[in-house]
Amino acid sequence: MDVHGLDLPRLRALAASVELGSQEAAAEALGLTPSALSQRLQALEAATGRPVLVRSRPVLPTATGLVLIDLLKQIEGLEPAAPQRDASPSPYPAHRPRLSIAVPPELVTWALTALVGLSVQWQVSVLEADATAAADLLRAGEVLGALVLSPQPIGGCTRIDLGALTYRAVASPAFAERYGLTSTDDADITSAVRSAPAVKAQGAGADLLDQVTRLDQSSELEHDLRARADIPAHVLPAGASQISAVTLGLGWAVLTEPQVSELLKSGDLVDVAAGRVLQRTLSWQHWNLATPAVNELTDAVVAASARLLAGVTPAGTDQPVTTSEVDATSEPANHIRPAASNERHGGESW
User: Fold this and answer.
1) If you classify domain 98-162+280-347 with CATH, what class do you get?
2) What CATH architecture does domain 3-75 belong to?
3) Which one of 32, 195, 246, 280 is at 20 to 30 Å from 163 when CA atoms are compared?
4) In whole angstroms, what is the distance from residue 92 CA to residue 121 CA?
C-alpha cells in the first residue's frame, strides 16, 4: 500500500461520498467538480490497490473503505484510537498484502495451482462463489477478481474470456449399470434419471436441474426433464468430496473435464451421457485497477487457464480477449463470442 497516497483530501472525499450517499452530493459539499472528486477516489484505490466504494445508490464503503474512514476519524481526532491489535508473531511478514479471489466450487483445487507462484509475495484467499455470488463479492470490493462461468460482464470490471470449460456427466461403472445409465436411447436415459440419485454441491439445487436438461438435445427429453424438479440428489460439500462420492458409487454428477479425465481413462468412472458434453465460457473478471497485485494475479490466472483448457480460447480468437465494462447493464461486446459455436441455452450446449 502506498501510504503517501492516503492524504486527507482524498480520505475526506471518500468519507463525504459515504455520508451523503453519492459522489455528486459529496462533490457539491466539498466544493469540487464531480470529475475532481472521482479522481481523488481513484487515487485512493490506486494507493490501496483495491476498491474503496461500491458504486451503488446510495454508495457504500468496501471493507477497505471502512478502514480508511476510520483512519480519517482517528487523524482528525473525532474518535479515540483503535485498540492495539494482538502483537503475537505471524508466519507472514506484516508488509505482505492479501489477494482475494472468487472461484466456482469445481475449480477451487485448480485455482490453488494458479496461486502457488504468488504465495511467496502475497497472502492469498480463495472464496467459493457461483457467478451471482462472485459478482456481489466484486461489487463489494471483497475480492480483486473472480473466475466466472458466464460470458456476462460485471459492472466496473475488466473481463478476459479464457475459453470453454468442458463438463461431462459421469458415474462409477457399477452405479451406471445398476440404474441403466449406460443406454444411448433417449427414453431409457429419461427413465434412468428419474430414479438414479445425483450428487450435487451445496447450494447447487437449481443448477443441477439446469445441467441435467442438457444431457441430450432432444426437445422431448429436455421437456420431460425440465418438468421434473424432484430429481433425487445427495447434497455434499463442493470440490473433491463430490468426485469421491461419485467414484464410490453414491450417485452421478456433472463434473469438469479436468476433474474426471484421468478417472475416465482408468475406468473408475464412465460417461453416462453417450459422449455428449456441456461447454461453459470461463472468464476472469477483475477490478479496473492497474496495480502490481491485479496485474500479477491476472497473469497467473491466464497462464494457468491455458494449461487447464489445453490451449482452448474463445471462438474466432488466437488469444484470450479482454474488454472493460463500466456499466452493470451493458451487453457483452459484439466481438466476444461464447467458446462453443452452438448457442443453444444461452451459449452453453450439449
Assistant:
1) alpha beta
2) Orthogonal Bundle (1.10)
3) 246
4) 10
Q: What is the pTM of this model?
A: 0.63
The CA-based angle 339-105-289, given to 5 degrees, is: 70
- What's the grid cell of residue 259? 476433474
Q: Give Cα 201 to chain centroid, integer Å.
A: 16
| Domain edges within the chain | 3-75, 98-162+280-347, 166-278
Distance of CA 294 to the CA centre of its chain: 15
**Of how many residues is the chain composed?**
350
Contact 259, 108 (CB under 8 A): no
Digit-coded pLDDT (tens) for 150-201: 778 887 789 999 998 888 889 999 999 998 887 666 556 666 666 789 888 7
Q: Rounded CA gap, 185 and 192, in Å?
A: 11
Spatial CB neighbours of 288, under 8 Å, sequence gap ≥ 6 = 156, 157, 158, 324, 326
Burial class (CB in 10 A: 0-12, 13-18, 19+), 136: middle
Would 98-162+280-347 and 166-278 be classified into the same CATH topology?
A: yes
Asked if residue 58 has a cis previous peptide bond (ω within 30° of 0), the answer is: yes
